[in-house]
Amino acid sequence: MVKYAYKPENAKKSCKARGSSLRVHFKNTRETAHAIRGMKLERAVAYLKNVIAKKEIVPFRRFTGGPGKHSQMKNLKATNGRWPQKSAKVILGLLQNAQASAELKELDTEKLFVKRIAVQQAPKTRRRTFRAHGRINAYMCSPCHVEVHLSEGHAVVPKPSSSALARK
After folding, report:
1. What is the enclosing helix (H) or strand (E) of 138?
2. SS3 136
3. Which fold does the domain 12-167 belong to in CATH?
4. Could you tell me the maximum CA-CA distance found in the chain, to the nearest angstrom?
């Protein structure tokens, strides 16, 4: 049995998916996950497909040391961004897995949104690469664990008019 980091309030109205020790970069996956947090499922899937096709960009807000500035960032409140295709494909697969789980639970997939998405670092695989003059350097990858929780959205309650508030 897999242990999840988060337990939803209403388990009957939510579904989840998890990937452990995935061979994708932690930093790219973390930024991609933060970009889709809170989105509706349909929009998140379309966004990730656009990232793979380089039509939309993933803003890098925390790990900004490497990525450069791009013109697609004009719409967002950040300056640095990338198109992490491998991370987008992995998260897209997890969203499809969670969607299949939701259909099995007979949830309305049009009302689903990304309630929570967590990315944690996994243990590094340590290798070595041989350099010139008899030296050896570390050659490590930075895998990660990804956990996705989808939940059904609540019905939108219309704001009461000011005349209804005045009558009270």
Report:
1. strand 136-141
2. strand
3. Ribosomal Protein L22; Chain A (3.90.470)
4. 86
**Distance (Å, whole) CA 55 – CA 42:** 16
- pTM of the predicted model as reported, rounded to 2 decimal places: 0.82
pLDDT in tens, the chain (168 residues): 577 777 888 888 889 999 999 999 998 999 999 999 989 999 999 999 999 999 998 888 887 777 777 777 777 777 788 889 999 999 999 999 999 999 999 999 889 999 999 999 999 988 899 999 999 999 888 999 999 999 987 656 777 777 766 666
Question: Domain spans of the chain?
Answer: 12-167
Give CA 18 to chain center in angstroms.
Answer: 12
The DSSP element (H or E) to which 113 belongs, if any, is strand 112-121
Question: Per-residue DSSP letters for 24-78?
Answer: S-HHHHHHHHHHHTT-BHHHHHHHHHHHHTTSS-EE-SS--SS--B-GGGGGTT-
